[in-house]
Design goal:
The protein is an alpha+beta fold. The chain has one domain. Helices cover about 25% and strands about 15% of the residues.
Length: about 170
């Protein structure tokens, strides 16, 4: 676990100097480690809390899409999943859409879906987009890791209860 000195944070309405210092720190971490895990905490809104990577959508990793988790789990647990995946990507692994065994504790199986362009507005991957984004909208590609509930149901399955385990989907399952 990171010490408080290892955590980079900035307020949403920070001034330019604070934002510049934040991004310099992020760039240094990406250069040192290959990527970072960024937590977004928007208060009481489920949609305002998610965790994602920044640094994978670069030529050295074959422009692998960034990774996003929207299920409300402890950000440290989300970071473990995302860091494990980031390590695999830096070793040449490419994650594909669909079921992906081994990301979470067996017998549960996570699914990977593509983040739709429309969802970039609701879930801005600001750090990744600002540093690595391409195209007219200056965006990175991203994949969402979708976690099943305790009954092994996914958010798109009948019987999944979004109130017990809210997990907004940023794209459509295969």
């Amino acid at each position: 676990m990171a010490d408080d000195d290892d955590i980079l944070a900035v307020e949403e309405n920070a001034d330019d100097a604070a934002m510049d210092a934040f991004y310099r720190g992020v760039v240094a971490r990406i250069e040192e480690h290959g990527w970072i895990v960024q937590g977004v905490f928007g208060g009481d809104s489920v949609e305002g809390n998610f965790t994602y990577t920044a640094g994978l959508f670069r030529p050295k990793y074959g422009y692998h899409p960034e990774l996003v988790i929207t299920v409300p789990i402890d950000p440290r647990n989300a970071a473990i999943i995302l860091n494990d995946m980031g390590s695999a990507i830096t070793q040449g692994h490419r994650y594909e859409l669909g079921p992906c065994e081994g990301l979470i504790a067996p017998p549960y199986v996570a699914h990977i879906i593509e983040v739709s362009v429309e969802k970039h507005e609701d879930y801005p991957l600001s750090v990744a987009n600002n540093l690595l984004g391409v195209g007219p909208d200056h965006r990175v590609e991203a994949l969402q890791i979708v976690i099943p509930n305790k009954d092994h149901l996914m958010p798109w399955d009948p019987g999944y209860d979004q109130e017990k385990l809210p997990q907004p989907l940023l794209g459509l399952p295969l």
